[in-house]
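Researcher: Let's do a round of design. I'm pasting the structure tokens now; please hold your answer until I've finished.
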């Protein structure tokens, strides 16, 4: 990995599960004598997020934001998600063609996470460009440079927005966090900005990939698409299967050995980097029957696509709901949906997240809905 060197990849299901629960493997870098730990970047908000800190800081940060993502609160968003999905499809169905990434997945997920955070509508167009801030190595140098610039822009934007929320709180997550109490019940400004950046990236970019790549995967497997159309009650299970089969997180959490340890029969030195391959774990034949086959009716759903334990994705309920509504509505409203170009010619993202960058489709034009 550029700037880091060699690292370990954990691929087995049981081994990844163990990695995510092993407190000998830490988010914060532990150096050995020959490799000094990098100086802490106290000014970088992303260095203070849930992905980059260990307990007890991780425990405090997660507790402060967990209430915003409780299942009941997310479930209450279903009517709004359904409304926005319908409005977005209304704009493309009369034409008989569209791009289900650019025309549906992106504006839907951007719109919902911005509404949850309290980001004004006039600023939401910028967030798609800035979402590259979440890119991590390995990635082309130019992409990493753009990511650094985007992160700076997001930092400045949220710094100003947080000041506005404190002066004039609204009914949104950012206001709640900005106006929280003191001590352990409050986030520092740096933590708050980092949390906002993380929620934008994790709450939107990953779901864009889940919706877009999920629909593409179904279109390439007509038998599974037909099964799902015939029985829409399978949608929740189908979304779980898509997370397992083609989820947006390929190479997952990075952890450093806190000391010289033995992990799964391998000697790992203090300070060495260990990465979990969630994609490989979710295709482990020791855990899943015929793992390389998509099965929307699969009932073994203990995948690791959303992480596990204290590292389980805070936004999992929102991602599941958005994907279920978006994919289900597309299949219900557009019965003759087809790819507009061969799947092998589709552009894929070049960042650390897996997903198609486009999904051009065709179908019979439909009359424009009447107001």
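Researcher: That's everything. Go ahead.
Model: Designed sequence:
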């Amino acid at each position: 990995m550029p700037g880091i060197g060699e690292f370990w990849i954990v691929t087995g299901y049981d081994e990844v599960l163990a990695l995510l629960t092993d407190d000998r493997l830490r988010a914060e870098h532990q150096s050995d004598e020959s490799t000094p730990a990098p100086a802490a970047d106290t000014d970088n908000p992303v260095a203070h997020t849930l992905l980059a800190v260990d307990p007890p800081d991780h425990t405090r940060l997660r507790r402060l934001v967990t209430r915003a993502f409780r299942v009941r609160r997310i479930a209450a968003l279903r009517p709004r998600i359904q409304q926005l999905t319908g409005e977005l499809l209304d704009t493309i169905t009369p034409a008989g063609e569209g791009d289900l990434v650019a025309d549906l997945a992106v504006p839907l997920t951007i719109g919902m996470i911005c509404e949850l955070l309290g980001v004004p509508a006039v600023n939401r167009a910028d967030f798609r460009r800035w979402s590259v801030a979440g890119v991590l190595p390995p990635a082309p140098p130019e992409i990493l440079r753009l990511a650094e610039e985007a992160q700076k822009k997001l930092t400045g934007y949220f710094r100003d927005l947080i000041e506005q929320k404190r002066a004039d709180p609204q009914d949104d997550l950012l206001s709640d966090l900005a106006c929280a109490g003191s001590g352990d019940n409050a986030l520092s400004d740096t933590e708050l900005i980092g949390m906002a950046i993380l929620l934008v990236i994790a709450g939107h970019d990953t779901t864009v990939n889940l919706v877009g790549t999920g629909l593409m995967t179904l279109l390439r497997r007509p038998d599974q698409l037909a099964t799902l159309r015939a029985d829409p009650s399978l949608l929740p299970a189908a979304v779980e299967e898509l997370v397992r089969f083609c989820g947006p997180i390929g190479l997952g959490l990075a952890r450093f050995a806190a000391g010289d340890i033995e992990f799964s029969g391998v000697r790992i030195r203090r300070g060495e980097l260990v990465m979990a391959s969630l994609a490989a774990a979710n295709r482990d034949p020791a855990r899943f029957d015929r793992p390389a086959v998509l099965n929307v009716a699969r009932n073994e759903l203990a995948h690791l696509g959303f992480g596990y334990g204290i590292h389980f994705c805070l936004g999992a309920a929102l991602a599941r709901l958005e994907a279920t509504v978006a994919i289900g509505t597309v299949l219900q409203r557009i019965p003759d949906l087809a790819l507009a170009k061969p799947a092998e010619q589709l552009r894929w993202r070049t960042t650390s997240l897996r997903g198609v960058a486009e999904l051009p489709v065709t179908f019979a034009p439909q009359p424009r809905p009447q107001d």
